[in-house]
Write a structure and sequence with these properties.
It is a single chain. With about 325 residues, the protein is α/β, with parallel strands linked by helices. The chain folds into two domains: about 150 residues, Medium-chain alcohol dehydrogenases, catalytic domain (Quinone Oxidoreductase, Chain A, domain 1, Alpha-Beta Complex); about 120 residues, NAD(P)-binding Rossmann-like Domain (Rossmann fold, 3-Layer(aba) Sandwich), CATH 3.40.50. Helices cover about 30% and strands about 30% of the residues. The protein is built from nine helices and 15 strands. The strands form three sheets. Strands 3, 4, 5, 6, 7, 14 and 15 form a seven-stranded mixed β-sheet that branches. The protein has a six-stranded parallel β-sheet with strand order 10-9-8-11-12-13. It has a two-stranded antiparallel ribbon with strand order 1-2. The termini are close together. Bound molecules: NADP nicotinamide-adenine-dinucleotide phosphate (NAP). The site of NADP nicotinamide-adenine-dinucleotide phosphate (NAP) has 32 residues, from α1, α3, α4 and β9.
Amino acid sequence: MKAAVVRRYGGPEVVDVVEVPRPQARRGEVLVRVHAAAVTSGDARIRAARFPGGFAVPSRLLLGLRGPRQAVLGTALSGVVEAVGDAVTSFAVGDAVCAMNAPQMGGHAEYVAVDARRLVNVPPGVSHDDAAGVLFGGATAMHFLLTKGHLGAGMTVLVNGASGAVGTSAVQLARQHGAVVTGVCSAANRSLVADLGASEVIDYRVTPLTELTGRYDLVLDTVGNLDLRSGRRLLTDRGILLLASASLGQVLRARGNVVAGLAAARRKDLALLLQQVAEGSLRVIHDQTFSLADIRAAHSRVDSGRKVGNVVVRP
Ligand SMILES: NC(=O)c1ccc[n+]([C@@H]2O[C@H](COP(=O)([O-])OP(=O)(O)OC[C@H]3O[C@@H](n4cnc5c(N)ncnc54)[C@H](OP(=O)(O)O)[C@@H]3O)[C@@H](O)[C@H]2O)c1
């Protein structure tokens, strides 16, 4: 089968599409024929070994010193069950399924073997592009806003980086829950972020975060340019600062009204996101879609830091 392989850390040019053996579904696993997989900011971080401040050494120890041990990246994927391993009873050949396959990844390939406990059915009417696109940003937004931030009606929420994968889901989730949302993005993305539910949109090139005078119950930073002091300054008395892109120092100092660290991708959250996509209450924003052969271009687009929503490859 064809797979996008990363043997050493580097720019998009280190990604090679080559023939590799097709994986087998072992006991408890399902072999998925991948129809769409997101190229996320997380995939691009791993490819480039571009980790948030202080995480370079621990990340390389965990993922591989000179290149990722799991050479095929791609965590968020959607496809069709090709074969099931022993002891798998909940999925059958032909089912449309999707997964956040961390830490194994492997979605940037024609086939991937996934632990059946990670799979979620793709509801009728939801495309593989949408399923693959919604998982990464949607699960992260749910983790920070709902699980950690206890998002509720009437809250005021600031989303920094409102036009990215996490931001476009976060703005919609906050609005759905009855919050009053302020989005921070550049002028080019103003109308999109307003359409997604932000009642106010701030252009960070005109008004830097340090000059904001508003106070918010939840501040979700997906950009990584808020230090603890300036972040806390934006909070109401009961406010919580949610740092999706925190440095190691910030993670270690995160306590009280500051939350940082890895987002969980719980299966029940993924199922809920997909249900919302099926019902039309959650829009999946797509930047560009590429063939697997063009995956270097997909990585370049993610590296630009300008992608709007999600970049997807179709193996
Ligand atoms: N903690 C976790 O478990 C977890 C999980 C998922 C993601 N993350 C992290 O969350 C971060 C965001 O991920 P993502 O996939 O949503 O990123 P993304 O989609 O790559 O974000 C791109 C967007 O960021 C906007 N942007 C760039 N600079 C900005 C600025 N200074 N202010 C406001 N917006 C800006 C861009 O809009 P403009 O072109 O308009 O500037 C663009 O639309 C990443 O660092 C990722 O590693 C963490």
